[in-house]
Inverse folding.
């Protein structure tokens, strides 16, 4: 089967177009696939925490085997607790064992 030059040109143009569309779709997907995982570089509004300064740990605070979620922000530690279905960060201190077992004391959050 002999192809005329005009048919060859149409075939090559079609192959190039298909290749460009495929490559464009692939690279478009790769560029946008992790967009939701990026913290925007905008100014943090007053009253909100800076994500880069927030550290979250899960640890056994009093040695009883129960894990607690601890948030650390600007050098202060907060206990992350669930108060009636509402997540709350509460300052705390660990009272060491003396006459009673070690336990966690929640502090006044107004400081």
């Amino acid at each position: 089967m002999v192809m005329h030059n005009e048919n060859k040109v149409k075939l090559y143009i079609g192959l190039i177009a298909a290749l460009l569309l495929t490559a464009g779709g692939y690279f478009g997907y790769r560029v946008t696939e992790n967009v939701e995982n990026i913290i925007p570089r905008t100014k943090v509004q007053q009253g909100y925490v800076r994500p880069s300064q927030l550290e979250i740990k899960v640890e056994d605070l009093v040695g009883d085997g129960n894990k607690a979620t601890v948030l650390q922000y600007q050098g202060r530690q907060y206990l992350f607790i669930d108060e009636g279905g509402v997540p709350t960060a509460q300052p705390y201190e660990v009272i060491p064992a003396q006459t009673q077992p070690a336990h966690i004391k929640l502090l006044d959050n107004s400081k």
Summary: The chain has a mean pLDDT of 81.
